[in-house]
Specification:
Main location: membrane
Distance between the termini: 52 Å
Shape: elongated
Organism: Shewanella corallii
Subcellular location: Cell membrane
Number of helices: 13
Family: Belongs to the type III secretion exporter family.
Protein name: Flagellar biosynthetic protein FlhB
Number of strands: 4
Largest sheet: 4 strands, mixed
Strand content: 5-15%
Radius of gyration: 44 Å
Helix content: 55-70%
């Protein structure tokens, strides 16, 4: 049966937590080819931008160096001045070129995967020192992929270089027939565009490598169904723990509810299974509201507290069931039950008046006010 068990196959896409954990460990999709292509193209376009000023600086430097007299060559102070001038003239175009190269190389390497800082990635790992694991990496699928990319890059660059040399061969030979400094400008211009075209050929590899690295990264982070379930348990909490938390929350809410029962005006019961504690306080609400409610054991506890605090208990089964099923704690009773509740409260207030020695004892009446059909339970 084990061969038919697919629960351990990595068929599930990585969860957001799995992706975030991998990123915190420095495990993100990266394309070396994208970074290499960015650096090469930056160098090419940097030469294109700084080429004219660099050519003029080189022309000036070569003119100064090749026109020195014998006495100037052996004059230390003069040579120091010459080199200061050389550095001053070459500094600005070289600074611009290096700045372009630095910025583009940084952006090119974070374009896929973003910026990540992880101490985990630089920690020594014993698995990397294992000869067996080393052989697996050398002859594994990833090594074959890298070998294929290396051969592909070599082939693409070689074919592109041969094609460019074939196309521009006559123009390259004609440089020897030109004069300074025109041939220097021409050579630099030709070199830059050949370099740009040669570097652009790497984009073919990049267009293949970037989707592959994204796919390979997602594949490595795929999860089994069991891993997804375990992560859900760790994130959301184990069912038994969540059940215990909910039980504690219910107990706390029940204790708070029971603490409000002594403040009730009347307890409406069913007469055994349901119990609802009702309060009418004009300063708090324009209509009677529910302080506590419960069934069976909770209802018994509400009745017990009511007897302890001498709160009237009125049996009105339809009304008790209707209030219990339609009204939440601290919520006003529905408008359709106002008349029935008012009848109960009127009896209770008359009873309190009698207990205070004011008026006659009210005669118990059947609390049978009709309950709207939509409120019946």
């Amino acid at each position: 049966m084990a061969e038919n068990d697919t629960s351990q196959e990595r068929t599930e896409e990585a969860t957001p937590k799995r992706l975030q954990d991998a990123k915190s460990k420095g495990q993100v999709a990266r394309s070396k080819e994208l970074g290499t292509a960015a650096v090469l193209l930056a160098a090419a376009f940097g030469f294109l931008i700084t080429g004219p000023s660099l050519a003029l600086a080189l022309d000036s430097v070569m003119t100064r160096l090749f026109t020195m007299t014998r006495e100037q060559v052996f004059d230390t102070n003069h040579m120091l001045n010459i080199w200061q001038i050389v550095f001053a003239e070459l500094a600005m175009p070289m600074l611009v070129f290096i700045s372009i190269l630095a910025v583009v190389s940084f952006v090119g390497n974070i374009l896929l995967g973003g910026i990540t800082f992880s101490s985990y990635a630089i920690m020594p790992k014993t698995s990397k020192m294992s000869p067996i694991n080393g052989f697996k990496r050398m002859f594994g699928i990833q090594a074959l992929v890298e070998l294929g990319k290396g051969l592909a890059k070599f082939s693409v660059v070689a074919i592109t270089a041969f094609t460019l040399l074939y196309i521009y061969f006559e123009e390259i030979l004609s440089l020897s027939k030109e004069y300074m400094p025109g041939n220097l400008h021409h050579a630099l211009d030709l070199l830059v565009w050949l370099f740009i075209l040669l570097c652009s050929s790497i984009l073919i590899i990049v267009l293949i490598d970037v989707p592959f690295q994204i796919w390979n990264h997602n594949k490595q982070l795929r999860m089994t169904k069991q891993e997804v379930k375990d992560e859900y348990k760790d994130t959301e909490g184990k069912p038994e723990v969540k059940g215990k938390v909910r039980q504690l929350q219910r107990e706390m809410a029940q204790r708070r509810m029971m603490a409000e029962v002594p403040n009730a005006d009347v307890i409406v019961v069913n007469p055994e299974h349901y119990a609802v504690a009702i309060k009418y306080d004009i300063s708090r609400s324009s209509a009677p509201f529910v302080l506590a409610k419960g069934v069976d054991e909770v209802a018994f506890k509400i009745r017990e507290i009511a007897r302890e605090y001498e709160i009237p208990i009125v049996s009105a089964p339809p009304l008790a069931r209707a209030i219990y099923h339609t009204t939440k704690i601290d919520q006003q009773v529905p408008e359709g039950l106002f008349t029935a509740v008012a009848q109960v409260l009127a009896y209770v207030f008359q009873l309190k008046q009698y207990q205070q020695g004011k008026g006659r004892r009210p005669t118990p009446i059947p609390f049978n006010q009709p309950i709207p059909d939509e409120l019946k339970h």
